[in-house]
Design brief:
Layout: E1 7-10, H1 14-25, E2 30-33, H2 37-47, E3 53-55, H3 59-64, E4 71-74, H4 80-89, E5 98-101, H5 107-118, E6 123-130, H6 132-138, E7 141-144, H7 148-161, H8 180-208, H9 214-224, H10 232-242, H11 265-276, H12 281-293, H13 296-302, H14 315-351, H15 357-363, H16 375-384, H17 395-418, H18 423-436, H19 442-453, E8 457-458, E9 465-468, E10 476-478
Parallel strand pairs: 1-2, 1-4, 2-3, 4-5, 5-6
Antiparallel strand pairs: 6-7, 8-9, 9-10
Helix pairs in contact: 1-6, 8-11, 8-12, 8-14, 9-10, 11-12, 12-18, 14-17, 14-18, 15-16
Binding site for substrate: 104, 130-132, 188-189, 193, 263, 290, 449, 455
Active site: 185 (proton acceptor), 192 (proton donor)
Domain 6-phosphogluconate dehydrogenase C-terminal: 181-471
């Protein structure tokens, strides 16, 4: 078999199939492989007119179809299935070849695989791909990790198939060594969870407090999408809310069970943040909100608990409230991105990845699920100050948060008084207030820890660690 294919894709479910078609549409010859050969031949039969494909049925044929250095992209389920594919193909490869994992792998698995294959001279490129099946076909945001050598060979191809930002730049960047790409994709998904939760809370407030119908709320979101909240998620929210169920004639959102599912990347974001000691409370609340929504029996048993029921506002009051919700949503969104970029920065420091936060925000401007107009301003903020400690330290974002203050707080007061849950908005404001506080109750916490466990504490007036002898004369000793 001629080794004419520039890249090969194994695993031809929706994402793999569409990425293979994307490569072919952009002029590359693509070798195809799938555990079930019928799927390979079906792709060629249906989409062969889009470009040059080489259908293969065995691992050996697949590898032999690839030019050197071989670029082999895995699009299978994360975990053991990915390991199984690597074990099948790695023995057939030669030093300098590369395996690209385009699935939602845990970054620690990627680090392990990269380390193991590096010993065989094979490059392993853990690559985050965001944009769903449409993005995979028409241009996703791509977050590759791995060696610089692998990116020199693979990067131009990824840049060609990626989404393009409004300034026409490709939405792909080399994130860093080993697991950096999958780590960035993990946090992207965590921010996505938070973004969706905040939008959901805005919807519920507009419906339960302001009294708007889903169709009216759709119009409000369309208006918001023409301003600073311009984003893919706001755009599709308007579409979902305006959709009417054909079978019942009811708003679509009223016939869907209010139990949200999750695939795990949001949980990973929170778990790793805990390991790194980074507060991502907004993302965590979004993960827990989905978890709570799934406990149907617990919710049913608690539905008659005491508390207020929302009473819709009058027309003029509702319009003013909607404006306040927009302020609260935007301010909370800034906090979510602040927390996400903090986690990326901490991960970069922990694993010595040297991730460019400005470059990350730039590639999220197109193709990915959280693409939004204000990411261009985030990129500018990090480009101007690579050492920016927080997005909230940027003058422009700080001014916008300051302007949103009163409305943000009023929305939470209204939510509390009317019994409408808003954990994302609340967590974002609590995080903001904690950052600007002169003193936190952590001093008391340290005193408690020293009392029951002799864990020691530090003083504000001199260096060193200290312990108070609480059971006796309460004298202080230096630890």
């Amino acid at each position: 078999m001629s080794n004419s294919a520039q890249i090969g894709v194994t695993g031809l479910a929706v994402m793999g199939r569409n990425l293979a078609r994307n490569f072919a549409r952009n002029g590359y010859t693509v070798a195809l492989h799938n555990r079930t050969a019928a799927r390979t031949h079906a792709l060629v039969e249906e989409f062969g007119h889009e470009g040059d494909f080489v259908a293969t049925e065995t691992a050996k044929e697949f590898v032999e179809a690839l030019e050197r250095p071989r670029r082999l992209m895995i699009m299978v389920k994360a975990g053991e299935p990915t390991d199984a594919v690597i074990q099948e193909f790695a023995p057939l490869l030669e030093p300098g070849d590369m395996i690209i994992d385009g699935g939602n792998a845990h970054f620690e698995d990627t680090r392990r695989r990269e380390r193991d294959l590096r010993g065989q001279g094979i490059h392993f490129v853990g690559t985050g791909v965001s944009g769903g099946e449409e993005g995979a076909l028409n241009g996703p945001s791509i977050m590759p990790g791995g060696s610089k050598e692998s990116y020199a060979s693979l990067g131009p191809m990824l840049e060609k198939i990626s989404a393009k930002a409004p300034d026409s730049s490709p939405c792909v960047t080399h994130c860093g060594p080993d697991g950096a790409g999958h780590f960035v994709k993990m946090v992207h998904n965590g921010i996505e969870y938070a973004d969706m939760q905040l939008i959901g809370e805005a919807y519920q407030l507009l419906r339960d407090v302001a009294g708007y119908s889903p169709a009216q709320i759709a119009d409000i979101f369309r208006t918001w999408n023409t301003g600073r909240l311009d984003s893919y998620l706001i755009e599709i929210t308007a579409e979902v809310l305006s959709h009417v169920d054909a079978a019942t004639g009811k708003p679509f959102v009223d016939v869907v069970q209010d139990r949200a599912e999750q695939k795990g990347t949001g949980r990973w974001t929170v778990q790793i943040a805990l390991d790194l000691g980074v507060p991502v409370s907004g993302i965590a609340e979004a993960v827990f909100a989905r978890s709570l929504s799934g406990h149907a029996d617990l919710r049913a048993a608690s539905r008659e608990l005491a508390g207020p029921r929302a009473k819709p506002l009058g027309d003029s009051e509702a319009a003013a409230f909607a404006d306040r919700v927009e302020q609260a949503l935007y301010a909370s969104k800034i906090v979510s991105y602040t927390q996400g970029f903090h986690e990326i920065s901490a991960g970069s420091d922990q694993y010595d990845w040297d991730i460019d936060l400005g470059a990350v925000s730039a590639i999220w401007r197109g193709g990915c699920i959280i693409r939004a107009a204000f990411l261009d301003r985030i990129r500018a903020a990090y480009d101007a100050r690579p050492d920016l400690p927080s997005l909230l330290s940027d003058e422009t974002f700080a001014q916008e948060i300051a302007a949103a203050q009163d409305d943000w707080r009023e929305v939470l007061v209204a939510a509390t008084r009317q019994g409408v849950p808003a954990p994302g908005f609340s967590a974002a404001l609590a995080y903001y207030d904690a950052l600007r506080a002169d003193r936190l109750p952590a001093a008391l916490t340290q005193g408690q820890r020293d009392f029951f466990g002799a864990h020691t504490y530090r003083r504000v007036d001199r260096e060193g660690s200290f312990h108070t002898l609480w059971g006796g004369d309460r004298s202080e000793v230096e630890a």
